[in-house]
Specification:
The structure holds two protein chains of two kinds.
Chain A: H1 3-7, H2 11-19, H3 23-41, H4 48-64, H5 75-91, H6 97-106, H7 113-121, H8 125-136, H9 139-150, H10 155-162, H11 166-182, H12 188-200
Helix pairs in contact in A: 2-3, 3-4, 3-5, 4-5, 5-10, 6-9, 9-11, 10-11
Chain B: H1 2-13, H2 16-22, H3 30-37, H4 41-58, H5 66-86, E1 105-110, H6 113-121, H7 123-135, E2 142-147, E3 152-156, E4 162-166, E5 169-174, E6 182-187, E7 189-194, E8 202-206, E9 209-213, E10 217-222, E11 228-235, E12 237-242, H8 243-248, E13 257-260, E14 264-268, E15 273-276, H9 288-291, E16 295-300, H10 301-312, E17 315-318, E18 327-331, H11 337-348, E19 351-354, E20 358-362
Parallel strand pairs in B: 1-10, 6-8, 17-20
Antiparallel strand pairs in B: 1-7, 2-5, 3-4, 4-7, 5-6, 8-9, 9-12, 10-11, 11-14, 12-13, 14-15, 16-18, 19-20
The chains are: A mainly alpha, B alpha+beta.
């Protein structure tokens, strides 16, 4: 396959090539989702080395087990699920996921004043405020919101990824969006004050 | 109200048209969204918030270059290939997809009562053959496993192949296979799943019969009261010939039967000849494992382990409480047991250990 053709080939088609041992299909799929995984990983840990190691493990695994891969309706889903497993394991090898999910919250990077300054310079005060509000949501809600809207996964896919039922996913989305509404930054002066404070540092 | 608010917001944020518009990529849709809002203040609020959220979600500062990603992918591929060379066991074997390595050879070979009696009568000559081989140094250090009491007993061969040994059966194999071939000696009845290795063909000697695996999947059934031995091939190709023929010809026996998918042959002990059978459907043994495709769709892991435990006659111990919520979707097919276990553990990120009596699995919760 030529590089141009590769770029326009569906995930599912590439997946099937990969299963037959096609290196180019493998590389193209990895290329498509490398950044996605890197970004998703940052929801769990600020340690980029750890995230990259987890991605590499996953990619190595993918090639080694290509022949036994099942047909998958969504490559992205498969990769995110597999990656999630790995990164959680890497963060705390011998704990179960309940504990890890709680850590999800703690491990989110803070939005520093430096960030704020950059953002305010870009005149994105509100965007930033909303980001702050998003970061205040419970960990589970944050992750579901991230998967649903940042990664555009379907509720059923999220359910599969988190091993919960689809109805729970819908409920979590409803709750998260409800919370978001309540916490919505309406008080602009606060934002301005915050930026003023940052400017003084 | 609350519900419809979140419902609408959810719908908007999942709508590609809306997202494009919110990011300023589709200014021509301004009127369309204006119209959607109409005079509805709730919709106005939702649209505004969705628009901000869309912008928040768009921001994905992942600061790595394409070149860096390329190099990381190449690195992963290189590591994977090195590992592949090192370990033949990671070769995944799935016949369905026709991959070069993806063919597990499984051999079902059984020698029933009639043959056992006959074999006892002919014991001297049989042993002579085995001894002759041992004298040639091909099985200096060997293991013999006898199953007297269990319905089936699992035996793992040095190359990772599986043997499911029936009651009153025994198998002998070298502790280390000859680099050029893998030879096992069976007395009684057993089911084989053989890891594929073209450089090291796999032979089963069962009294006067030799079955040679050719990287394929097949079954052999032997042992009727009338002294017949029947060989039935499920998939792929297998050679069947007599010990006598094997002794007479070094290398490729001239008088052999090559059986392919759904073919069957009989071994007439009285005339010591092999005859291709015209029967359409192969005669297969009535073994649990024989009929089991090991195909699972979101099956609870306990169910999977129970099935494997039963089919192979091996105890599987795992942390039940922790892994209670784990399930798998997979087709384990004709893989040797260890590959099946390895695959399950890969899916579940669990660790395993195979000892003589048990398989121990430790995994995490899948909640």
């Amino acid at each position: 396959m030529s590089p141009g053709l590769l770029k326009n080939t569906d995930d599912a088609v590439l997946w099937n090539y990969l299963r037959e041992g096609d290196e180019e299909a493998y590389t193209e799929l990895a290329r498509r989702y490398y950044r996605t995984m890197l970004q998703y990983g940052q929801k769990f840990t600020p340690n980029v080395q750890m995230i990259e190691d987890a991605i590499q493990d996953l990619l190595v695994h993918l090639w080694l087990h290509r022949a036994s891969l099942n047909d998958t309706p969504s490559v992205k889903f498969y990769l995110l699920k597999s990656f999630r497993h790995r990164i959680l394991k890497a963060i705390k090898p011998h704990s179960n996921e309940v504990e890890l999910t709680e850590r999800f919250e703690d491990l989110l990077p803070d939005h520093s004043c430096e960030d704020s300054l950059i953002r305010s310079e870009n005149d994105q005060a509100l965007t930033h405020q909303v980001q702050v509000v998003l970061d205040q949501l419970p960990a589970r809600q944050q992750e579901v919101i991230y998967l649903r809207f940042f990664q555009n996964l379907k509720p059923e896919e999220i359910a599969g990824l988190l091993s919960i039922n689809p109805q729970s996913v819908s409920n979590i989305i409803q709750r998260a969006l409800g919370n978001l509404r309540e916490l919505w930054p309406t008080v602009q002066p606060y934002a301005l004050l915050f930026y003023a404070y940052c400017q003084t540092l | 109200m609350h519900r419809s608010y979140t419902g609408l917001l959810d719908a908007l944020l999942a709508n590609p048209d809306f997202l494009q518009w919110a990011r300023g990529e589709k200014p021509e849709d301004d009127a369309r969204w204006d119209q959607w809002v109409g005079n509805n203040p709730d919709r106005r609020e939702i649209l505004q918030k969705a628009r901000v959220l869309a912008k928040v979600m768009e921001e994905a500062p992942v600061e790595v270059s394409d070149d860096y990603i390329e190099s990381r992918i190449r690195q992963a591929l290189t590591i994977a290939k090195q590992k592949e060379v090192k370990s033949s066991q990671v070769r995944k074997l799935l016949p369905a997809i026709g991959y070069r390595w993806a063919v597990a050879a499984s051999l079902l070979l059984a020698v029933g009562i009639g043959m056992v009696i006959y074999g006892m009568r002919k014991d001297n000559s049989h042993d002579a053959v085995v001894l002759a081989k041992e004298e040639r140094g091909q099985a200096a250090d060997s293991t013999r496993i006898l199953n007297m009491d269990r319905v089936v007993k699992y035996v793992q061969l040095p190359d990772g192949s599986s043997v499911v040994l029936h009651r009153n059966s025994s198998i002998r194999f070298p502790n280390r296979f000859d680099p050029a071939k893998r030879e096992v000696y069976l007395s009684g009845e057993a089911f084989f799943e053989v890891t594929k290795n073209p450089a090291q063909p796999f032979y089963v000697y069962a009294n006067e019969l030799v079955a040679q695996v050719h990287g394929t999947s097949f079954s052999v059934k032997a042992g009727h009261q009338d002294g017949q031995v029947e060989v039935a091939v499920k998939t792929g190709k297998v050679w069947v010939y007599t010990n006598k023929e094997a002794e007479a010809s070094r290398g490729e026996p001239a008088a052999r039967l090559i059986l392919t998918q759904n073919e069957q042959a009989s071994f007439d002990r009285n005339n010591l000849t092999l005859v291709r059978s015209t029967q359409k459907s192969p005669v297969l043994l009535n073994l649990v494992i024989e009929h089991q495709p090991f195909a699972y769709s979101e099956a609870p892991i306990g169910e999977v382990f129970t099935a494997l435990s039963k089919a192979y006659g091996v105890d599987i111990e795992y942390n039940k409480d922790q892994m209670a919520n784990c399930s798998i979707t997979a087709t384990l097919g004709d893989e040797p047991l260890e590959n099946k276990i390895k695959w399950i553990c890969t899916i579940l990120e669990a660790d395993y250990e195979i000892t003589e009596e048990k398989i121990h699995i430790r995994g995490n919760s899948c909640l």
